[in-house]
Amino acid sequence: MAKNEPVKSIVIEDVAEQRAMQPWVDMEFFQMGRGKRVGRMASVDLAAQQVVQEKQDVAVQKLGVMPDNICTVSCCAFDPDFRFSEIQAGETDAVFLLPGNAEFDVYVPAGAQTSYISFDQNELIGHLRVLDPERWEYPPKALWAIPGVPRSALESLVRQFYEVARSHGVNGRDRAFLRQMLLHEVAGMVTSSRGQDVPAMDRLRAFRVCRAALGYVEDRLSEDVLPTITDLCLEFGVSERTLQYGFQSYVNMSPQSYLRLCRLNRVRAVLRAPTSKEITVTEVATRFGFFHMGKFAQFYRLHFGETPSITLARGLKLMA
Q1: Which PROSITE patterns match (predicted)?
Q2: 213 C-beta neighbours (distance < 10 Å), count
């Protein structure tokens, strides 16, 4: 395996190897249990971000200090013996934010699987403040269990992201797009856990914003730019809660569902009128932000009553 290959999956036989695969943070690894094989580690290197899954075959302890302005969002599959610093995290269905400059002391028992994504802290907190200004005006300075975010959500995101990166590869041009996609996904995941109470005076504004947002979304998609919830909040100067209320009232769906539906319709439009005989369903789907092909195909069929491959075949036939 090439040293600088962005997508990696290796069997760990020494804790020094596990530490070496995470050079961006200065930490110590200790093997606490018996066994020749320490575990397995899979990672995607996006330069400014790291996406990591670790499965331990023996217990390990990690100690260190986070770099300045680098934070992680992480979780561990249920294990009562897992400890994240002072939190007995294995008993908590939670996702954790570890901010820059914070010390950590993690005990991971044999058999446990952990997942994390590292971020530029200023960038992540900036997005969170746009979506939920009240909660994120003063971000935590120490390890924090984010309330209301189930670990299964982060585990699924990391697993799916790794599979897409492994299957399709990651080149230099893709990295910026993938970093932004992860940033928006995690920011939305974190802020969506908050209640949706909206001040009365904001409701009329939310409705008007949604009417304007529909045109904004179509304009961005026509430029092959995938708009996000953060983009909408920034463009119209509202919080995510206000946007959620407005879309629910205006089109009876969440803004996330509306954006996904807009992207799905763009995929269909391209498949119906392909400009090249070499075009593939996967190419078009990923272009519009669908990376899990199984779920994409299911969603497409439920919405349009046919598979995307049938739509493309008909489009290619008309093109001939």
Answers
A1: HTH_ARAC_FAMILY_1, HTH_ARAC_FAMILY_2
A2: 25
What global pTM score does this model have? 0.68
Residues 286 and 223 in one domain: no
**Structural contact between residues 228 and 220, judged by C-beta atoms closer than 8 angstroms:** no
pLDDT digits (tens, 9 = 90+) for 73-99: 998 877 778 888 888 765 567 889 999
Question: Residue 43 pairs with which residues in a beta bridge?
Answer: 8, 52
Distance CA 20, CA 204 (A): 54
**With contact defined as beta carbons under 8 Å apart, do 184 and 232 qualify?**
no
Asked if residue 229 lies in contact with residue 190, where contact means CB atoms within 8 angstroms, the answer is no
**Contact present, 244 and 255 (Cβ < 8 Å):** yes
Residue 261 lies in a domain: no
Question: In the block, which residue shows the tokens 């209320």?
Answer: 245
Structure tokens at 236: 């119209």
Domain count, the chain: 3
Q: Tens digit of pLDDT for each residue in 193-223?
A: 655 444 544 555 666 777 788 889 888 988 8
The CATH number linked to 40 is: 2.60.120.10
Q: How do residues 128-163 score in pLDDT, each as one tens digit?
A: 888 888 888 888 888 988 878 888 889 988 988 888
- Please check whether residue 49 is in contact with residue 119, taking contact to mean a CB–CB distance below 8 angstroms: yes
In-domain check, residue 259: no
Domain membership of residue 227 as a residue range: 195-252
Q: Which amino acid is present at 61?
A: Q
